[in-house]
Amino acid sequence: MTEVVFGRGSGHEQVVFCQDAQTGLKAIIAIYSTALGPALGGTRFYPYQAESEALDDVLALAKGMAYKNALAGLDLGGGKAVIIGDPETTKTEALLRAYGRFVQSLGGRYITACDVGTYVADMDVVARETRFVTGRSAANGGAGDSSVLTAFGVFQGMRACAEHRWGTPDLAGRRVGVAGVGKVGRILVGHLLDAGAEVVVCDVSAAAIERTLAAHPEVTVVDDVIGQQLDIFAPCALGGVLTDQTVPRLRAEIVCGAANNQLAHPDIDKLLSERGVLYAPDYLVNAGGVIQVSDELHGFDFERAKQRASSIFDTTKAVFALAGAEGVPPATAADRLAERRMSEVGRLRSILLP
After folding, report:
1. Mean per-residue pLDDT, 31-60
2. What are the residue boundaries of the structural domains of the chain, listed by start?
3. For residue 202, which of 158, 240, 250, 234 has the smallest C-alpha distance?
4. Residue range 217-244, pLDDT digits in tens
5. 238: nearest Cα among 284, 179, 307, 316
6. What's domain 2-60+78-140's architecture?
7. What is the DSSP letter of 268?
8. Is 181 annotated as a binding residue?
9. Smallest Cα–Cα separation from 32: which of 54, 6, 51, 53?
10. What pTM value is reported for the model?
11. Is 255 labelled as part of a ligand binding site?
12. Per DSSP, what are the bridge partners of residue 279?
């Protein structure tokens, strides 16, 4: 395990490179902040083309988790991990257990969970080598699939967006485009249809589309959601979808989705505001999953976790209110609220206890 210390511009507390040649494990664990508590964030298993690409991703994701956990009111810091490789071909029990030992070696500064390419069954394997893991199966005392409350939280965020833009949280009759119908997107589609919305979907995976149509045959499948005439655009695949090129093509009044790091660069939130598009910051509305898995740390209770995830509705409204009061885009307002909590509450750790 190699520890890397970054310059003043990074802001990350710790970044470690983990490698085990025999199992083929190549992973990076990034801890952005432990001001509020141990850094909680999932493990992404993805076939990055280069180590530098993986590093850029994990650094951005770790920072996002710190802000997400702070804004969700959790006493947890933010971190993330990536395993470099194709999970369909390189994932093995030995590799996951080797990874678990690296997590354990950090002594609880980082607590892992599921993300893209990792599942509940994987966390059960990782947990055989470390106690610092959440998102385990119910049979092993865990919360199960965190996609359930991630989708629920995004749905609550959409309702808050609708109330802010149209005066009512009712989504009946609204046309919503969901880009990415994997673990979270497919569940979100169900919530939207139950609310009476018209749903349009797209995904690069034919299998994901087939599973969605099997469960919800009434949805419309298109090649490109972002160019559709919509009320709400919901990015639910990988990040970076909102760029200088895609935003001008956007034909929706609201952007609210589950994908992490949706903005290609920070100035995109200003571009959205200039075009009159209401943007719900991703780490604000997709916090339901981390709320779900963090509840495992206290003995998991689904109804308690769901009740806490429902507060995303009120937090989203608070972000929009601050944005209006201070004349800044919602992403800036969300950052300010998260940074304020990390600073004010995190400062209390300087008060020494016996």
Report:
1. 96
2. 2-60+78-140, 147-341
3. 234
4. 999 999 999 989 999 999 999 788 999 9
5. 179
6. 3-Layer(aba) Sandwich (3.40)
7. H
8. yes
9. 6
10. 0.87
11. no
12. 255
